[in-house]
UniProtKB/TrEMBL annotation:
PANTHER family: DIHYDROANTICAPSIN 7-DEHYDROGENASE. SUPFAM superfamilies: NAD(P)-binding Rossmann-fold domains. Its EC number is 1.1.1.194. It comes from Cognatishimia coralii. The lineage of its organism: Bacteria, Pseudomonadati, Pseudomonadota, Alphaproteobacteria, Rhodobacterales. This is Coniferyl-alcohol dehydrogenase. Belongs to the short-chain dehydrogenases/reductases (SDR) family. Keywords: Oxidoreductase. One of its GO terms (molecular function) is coniferyl-alcohol dehydrogenase activity. It comes from the Bacteria.
Amino acid sequence: MHEGKTYVVTGAASGIGAETVKTLKAQGAHVIGVDRNPAGGVDQFFQADLSDPQSIDALVEALPSGLNGLANIAGVPPTAPAAVVLKVNLYGLQRLTLRLLPKLADGASIANLASLAGFGWPNAVEQCKAALALSLEDDIDAFVAEHALEGAEGGRSYFLSKEALVVWTMQNRWSWRDRGINMNCVSPGPVDTPILGDFIETLGARAEEDMKVMDRPGTPQDVAPVVSFALSDHAKWFRGTNLMVDGGMSSHILSGIHGL
């Protein structure tokens, strides 16, 4: 499905990122991995800190041109400081994507790993707009203080980072249509990765209740094929879409909201 294609995968060292690398390579792709930590199984590896604009710019400078896609999978959990959560999960992702556009081939695809945590964006539109008015070079600490995000109950900074990412992806549904470049989100539910414990720690009883409803947590093997699909030519008419891969949890929530 990806023969002769070259993709950049961030967060390639572990979890969903590492499994996406494996999946893409099995389908014929040349994969460039990006992470803070060394990543195995990739064809090329670049170390970068997605909370640091200079590190991102150096990465973009080093990457080749003619790339067929970007999988923005790197992220930090809600136990990290709120400013770091926003920088990595939202602002660093945006900066990398926008700076890398000139090096993407026409017809390339961008897949952003959002989350079921972004499901509530319709109830947080104004806060999403406020977040999206900023960039990685702005004073994110001041934004965190203004919105009381540090230590906020339920990991609010993480939820906001994913809500704003879903909104940003929708806003850019047609931004690069003239070049045939599409961008979509993939939103997993709870996934059994090294940071699942961080979510349970942060969300407490809420996470425990969700886990009781689900038959099991997801695995990276559940999610990586969806990311692969989003990068493929088969998904070219998906534009600004949020693909939910959550074991039915979003449908469960919607059914409850609407009395179904």
